[in-house]
Amino acid sequence: MSRVVDALDLYLLGRRLAKAGELALQGRGAGGMPPALALVLGDVLSHPDSSISQITDRTGFPQSYVSKSVNRLRELNVVETVTDPADGRRTLVRASRAASRRIEKRAKAPFDAVLVDALGAADPQALAEVREALELLVSRLVPAGARTQSPRTQSQSRAR
């Protein structure tokens, strides 16, 4: 018997799926990156050679936070910065090559272990059912190109 899903169920499911996605992207035993810092990194990955101002515009974060985030990511050897050849006052930010390879590999990593943890059991039938349901949700609800846009950019695109 199926139950009626309400707004609270949808919200709670979204939170659990977001946490599962974060775990899958981080990998087991990996230290987590704060979500806001990860969003700045995501924007840099989606828009290489962007200025701090451009990242600020797309993410909605204050410029001071974006600058601090870029400095932190540079310390972690995840991004590199260069002076804009067209305007020496601007700094351009892009992912380091090594970071790009690591991130792409993690993004394509299977997430069965995370699903098993979320389900509380390794029942192959339940795992297959949940995976099929997730694939359907992604195909219907994740817009084409969403993997290359920040959430703020996606909401602005839908508003137009």
What percentage of residues falls in helices of 4 or more residues?
A: 55-70%
Report on the biggest sheet: 3 strands, antiparallel
Overall pLDDT score: 81
**Strand order of the biggest β-sheet:** 1-3-2
Indicate the low-confidence ranges by residue numbers.
Answer: 148-160
How many domains, as an integer?
Answer: 2
Q: Give the strand content.
A: 5-15%
- Class computed from helices, strands and strand pairing: mainly alpha
- For the CA atoms, what is the radius of gyration? 18 Å
| CATH domain class name of the largest domain | Mainly Alpha
How many strands appear in the DSSP assignment?
3
- Classified in CATH, the superfamily of the largest domain is Winged helix-like DNA-binding domain superfamily/Winged helix DNA-binding domain
H and E order: HHEHHEEHHHH
- End-to-end gap: 40 Å
Q: Note the total helix count.
A: 8
Which CATH architecture of the largest domain would you pick? Orthogonal Bundle
In short:
By secondary structure, this protein is mainly alpha-helical. Helix content is 62%, strand content 8%.
How would you portray this structure in words?
GO terms for molecular function: DNA-binding transcription factor activity. Residues 32-90 form the HTH marR-type domain. With 160 residues, the chain is mainly alpha-helical. 62% of the residues lie in helices and 8% in strands. It has 2 domains: 31-109, Winged helix-like DNA-binding domain superfamily/Winged helix DNA-binding domain (Arc Repressor Mutant, subunit A); 110-160, no CATH class. It is built from 8 helices and 3 strands. The chain has a 3-stranded antiparallel beta sheet with strand order 1-3-2. Helix 3 packs across helix 4. It starts with 6 loop residues before the first helix and ends with a helix. 12% of the residues are buried. Mean pLDDT is 81; it is low at 148-160.
